[in-house]
Write a structure and sequence with these properties.
- This protein is α/β, with parallel strands linked by helices and about 500 residues long.
- Among the domains are: about 130 residues, 3-Layer(aba) Sandwich (Rossmann fold); about 110 residues, ANL, C-terminal domain (GMP Synthetase, Chain A, domain 3).
- The protein is about 30% helix and about 25% strand.
- The strands form 6 sheets. Strands 11, 12, 13, 14, 15, 16, 17, 18, 19 and 20 form a 10-stranded mixed beta sheet that branches. The chain has a 4-stranded mixed beta sheet with strand order 2-1-10-9.
- The C terminus is likely disordered.
């Protein structure tokens, strides 16, 4: 039995303990059932599809216990699981399929089949419905005939495609080594034990849906429940009714939960805290949840590393509001300026990471690998600063910084001020081309209070920011475009703004 086969281990130690439950299907599985069903799935993959170590299996499906069992089987066999983003267009999914060349594609149902490119005859992969696959796999044997069942530490287990907001999607290779050390980091920082219980509401096509809580929780013999789609009222009710001790969310989810009718009477029984990442968390939102007695364990992660890289302990959530915490236990970090020199406290620089949680590289993209990973250090492209107490604060993406009149401007600094304004629900700032200044800022906001006017927002910004940092335009929107994980899609905002401006020029 391999020490990386955590499900087999817990099947031996606590075979009848409930490991996972699905709110959608009402099905639950003990650790022994997870183990045995995964054996059947593995056997079916070998006998029906003749998949071999290193081959890719792409999936277009919502998260579920069945998806988890498929991963357990592929990990054991050395097959690389490729969770595809079902929110991508057919063209984007087609690009990923061409890039990764899967031997088998599993699709959730007919609507996901439509996302497979029309040129199906050009795809050299077998295709099968997700539901049919599991129905047939359940009837398979549990024995692995003549199979050397060994999990290799360096074997890739996932390829995660990034959102592609800065170009075409890139496939990030994720290995057993990364999974193991990420799990240690997570368990140490979040103090996870076998009595913990969570509900997973994040999608499977992002590393967070697997590696922030799901796999680290199962490593510790804890329990994970699934819901395929995030529903704020339903999640709040479930956390209140069940002994949920931890919950992972992105800020967008937390804002939606606050707006739910259930929130006013929300009193969880056992919830220790929320784990939050993905984008900046406003101090206002931290305070709203703190009044409910719920603290935030903020953190920072990347698809290319961990993703558990830094953590802010929940007891420091109010003392160090806005901080992403300190580096996790088994992570080395350094902060470099544009000359590749380490910066002093309270100086901004690019965060660089080293350790066993760093990806070996990008699939079929050695040029990008060499550009991002230098002498074993991953250059994240994220700008941070460290205060005198050693806490890190996110300033923004290196490629999100814009230069106006020779001054570097970080959008997150302006966004943090916008979130202080009573009546602003969401905010995003991007840099756009400007004939006079080179670039200038545009702020996009969603309002809670419709009485709030642009002139009021601008007046508040002028009181709290240098004049050159105040965005040239402030645009009120009904909603902001989101990525599959619920993060604000700034690239889409820039493209939309550029199109509107071009249309105005053409009209005039």
């Amino acid at each position: 039995m391999n020490y990386l086969d955590w499900i087999a281990k817990w099947s031996s130690y606590t075979p009848y303990k409930k490991a996972v439950y699905c709110l959608d299907t009402k099905r639950s599985f003990s650790y022994m059932e997870l183990h045995e069903n995964s054996l059947k799935i593995g056997n079916y993959l070998i006998n029906r599809f003749q998949l071999k170590r290193g081959e890719r299996l792409a999936v277009i499906a919502e998260h579920s216990p069945e998806y988890l069992m498929l991963f357990i089987a592929t990990q054991r066999l050395g097959i690389i699981l490729v969770p595809l983003n079902y929110r991508y267009t057919s063209q984007e999914i087609g690009y990923c399929i061409d890039d990764v060349s899967p031997s088998l594609i599993l699709g959730d149902d007919l609507k996901f089949k439509t996302k497979i490119p029309e040129q199906k005859n050009k795809i050299q992969a077998q295709f099968m419905s997700f539901k049919s696959f599991f129905e047939k796999a359940e009837k398979a044997d549990t024995d692995y005939p003549n199979l050397d069942f060994k999990i290799d530490t360096e074997q890739p287990i996932f390829i995660f495609y990034t959102s592609g907001t800065t170009g075409k999607p890139k496939g990030v290779i994720y290995t057993n080594r990364m999974m193991f050390w990420n799990s240690l980091n997570t368990a140490v920082q979040l103090e996870i034990t076998s009595v913990d219980h969570t509900i997973n509401a994040l999608p499977p096509f992002h590393t967070s849906g697997w590696n922030v809580l799901l796999l680290p929780m199962l490593h510790r013999g804890a329990r994970v429940d699934f819901i395929s789609k995030f529903q704020p009222g339903k999640i709040l009710s479930y956390i209140q009714e069940q002994p949920i001790s931890l919950f992972l969310a992105v800020p967008t989810m937390l804002r939606m939960m606050v707006k739910s009718k259930v929130f006013s009477k929300f009193k969880p029984k056992k919830l220790n805290y929320f784990i939050v990442g993905g984008e900046n968390l406003s101090c206002k939102l931290i305070d709203i949840w703190a009044k409910k007695g719920i603290l935030m364990s903020q953190g920072y992660g990347l698809t290319e590393a961990g993703p558990s890289i830094t953590s802010l302990h929940r007891h420091e959530a109010l003392w160090k509001k806005g901080s992403i915490g300190k580096p996790n236990f088994y992570v080395d970090v350094k902060i470099l300026n544009h000359k590749n020199e380490e910066v002093n406290n309270n100086q901004a620089g690019e965060l660089c990471i080293k350790g066993n949680i760093v990806t070996p590289g990008y699939w079929n993209n050695s040029a990008c690998t060499l550009q991002k990973i230098k002498d074993e250090w991953l250059h994240t492209g994220d700008i941070v600063c460290r205060d005198a107490d050693g806490f890190l604060f996110m300033i923004g993406r290196k490629n999100n910084i814009y230069i106006s009149g020779g001054e570097n401007i970080h959008p997150s600094e302006i966004e943090n001020i916008l979130y202080q304004i009573d009546g602003i629900e969401e905010a995003a700032v991007v840099g756009v081309e400007d004939e006079n200044w080179g670039e200038t800022g545009v702020a996009f906001v969603v309002l809670q209070n419709q009485k709030l006017k642009v002139k009021d927002i601008r007046s508040y910004l002028r009181k709290h920011l240098a004049s050159y940092k105040v965005p040239r335009e402030i645009i009120i929107m009904e909603k902001l475009p989101k990525s599959g994980l619920g993060k604000i899609n700034k690239n889409e905002l820039k493209v939309g703004f550029k199109k509107i401006n071009n249309d105005k020029k053409n009209f005039l």
